[in-house]
């Protein structure tokens, strides 16, 4: 089955630093990847849609300068949380669509728990 | 308005019992999907049902879809402790490619 690898699994950083999270599709090409944020015991909140070779589409209320998304290849998208603050602490998850598949279901990474001190 | 509202929010049952979770949505859909999330992990796709389908089975899973009521249910039969997880429904609209996730049901299966 399709595998999406997300790294790191968890990261602790100081306030004001930037953190990069990688999302890779290991055995398929993903023209579209999605980034979500999830608070404890809550649903996934879509942050942005990342398309290979073009600018990401951000959801309303998500600061594009704060959450930088780069989708430079068909297998890699990155989310950089710039100048992180404690309120950015959350669980971040990526997902991808298989370019060659039916394009309906999503394959998810295992998530990144970000803690900003 | 919230697309994909689920109930119950939490469900606790004994091993061997059946678990039923419901999902309601507000707009027209192309398909509805169910995902499972173990604590602190990503989501895993379980099953997809299209708008022109009424029922679908996969192993111990049974999904129904009632487009007139804009609702779906997920039934897990003969539950096991390993089924303990959060279950989310997600709807794919007719015009876009994005999925909208419900609030989820936290299922606990006690051994």
Compose a concise summary of this entry.
The complex is a heterodimer of chains A (117) and B (111). Chain A has 117 residues and is mostly beta strands. Chain A has strands spanning 4-7, 10-13, 19-25, 32-38, 44-51, 57-58, 67-73, 76-81, 90-96, 107-108, 112-116.
One letter per element, helices H and strands E, the order of chain B comes to EEEEEEEEEEE
Which outline of chain A best applies?
globular
Main pleated-sheet profile of chain A: 7 strands, mixed
Unreliable spans of chain A: none
Q: In which range does the helix fraction of chain A lie?
A: under 10%
Give a quick account of the main beta sheet of chain B: strands, pairing sense, barrel closure: 6 strands, mixed
Q: Can you characterise this structure?
A:
The complex is a heterodimer of chains A (117) and B (111). Chain A is mainly β. Chain A has strands at 4-7, 10-13, 19-25, 32-38, 44-51, 57-58, 67-73, 76-81, 90-96, 107-108, 112-116. Chain A has no helices and eleven strands. In chain A, the strands form two sheets. In chain A, strands 2, 4, 5, 6, 9, 10 and 11 form a seven-stranded mixed sheet that branches. The radius of gyration of chain A is 13 Å and the shape is globular. The mean pLDDT of chain B is 91. In chain B, the strands form two sheets. In chain B, strands 2, 4, 5, 9, 10 and 11 form a six-stranded mixed sheet that branches. In chain B, strands 1-3-8-7-6 form a five-stranded antiparallel sheet, with no helix packed on it. Chain B contains no helices and eleven strands. In chain B, a hairpin with a 5-residue loop joins strand 4 and strand 5. Chain B starts with a strand and ends with a strand. Chain B is an all-beta fold. Chain B is 0% helix and 59% strand. The interface between A and B is medium-sized, with 24 and 22 residues.
